[in-house]
């Protein structure tokens, strides 16, 4: 099976977890997803008191330079771990 197909399946399964992952795990999923689909972070870092947007931006920015294929594989691997822990 192709990596993109496995990635898309993992994204679909992320919505089926019966328990909510930790905020750190959710940020990891978000950052890996964005790196996989959009590449390196773009735009300016949010300011003010939008702490959620800042955390998401920072998590994504930490992956700058990571190849999309690698980010996809890491997303798939993380989803396997989360499925074992939260299903």
The helicity comes to: 55-70%
- Please describe the biggest sheet, giving its number of strands, its sense, and whether it closes into a barrel: none
Q: H/E element string?
A: HHHH
Estimate the global geometry from the Cα principal axes.
flat
The overall pLDDT average reads 96
Beta-strand content bin: under 5%
Which blocks of ≥5 consecutive residues have pLDDT under 50? none
State the CATH topology: Acyl-CoA Binding Protein
Number of domains: 1
Q: Give me the Rg, rounded.
A: 13 Å
Structural class: mainly alpha
In the CATH hierarchy, the architecture is Up-down Bundle
Number of helices: 4
Provide the CATH top-level class: Mainly Alpha
Number of strands: 0
- Cα distance, first to last residue? 24 Å
How does this model look, in words?
With 87 residues, this protein is mainly alpha-helical. It has one domain (3-86): Acyl-CoA Binding Protein. It is 67% helix and 0% strand. It is built from four helices and no strands. The protein has helices at 3-14, 23-38, 51-61, 68-86. Helix 1 (3-14) packs parallel to helix 4 (68-86), helix 2 crosses helix 3 and helix 2 (23-38) packs antiparallel against helix 4 (68-86). The chain is flat. It starts with a helix and ends with a helix. The mean pLDDT is 96.
List keywords for this structure.
87 residues; Acyl-CoA Binding Protein; mainly alpha; single chain; flat; 0% strand
């Amino acid at each position: 099976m192709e990596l993109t197909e496995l990635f898309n399946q993992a994204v679909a399964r992320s919505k089926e977890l019966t328990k909510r992952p930790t905020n750190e795990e959710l940020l990891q999923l978000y950052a890996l997803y964005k790196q996989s689909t959009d590449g390196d972070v773009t735009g300016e870092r949010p300011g003010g008191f939008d702490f959620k947007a800042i955390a998401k931006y920072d998590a994504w920015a930490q992956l700058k330079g990571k190849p999309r294929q690698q980010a996809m594989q890491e997303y798939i691997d993380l989803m396997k771990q989360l499925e074992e822990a939260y299903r």
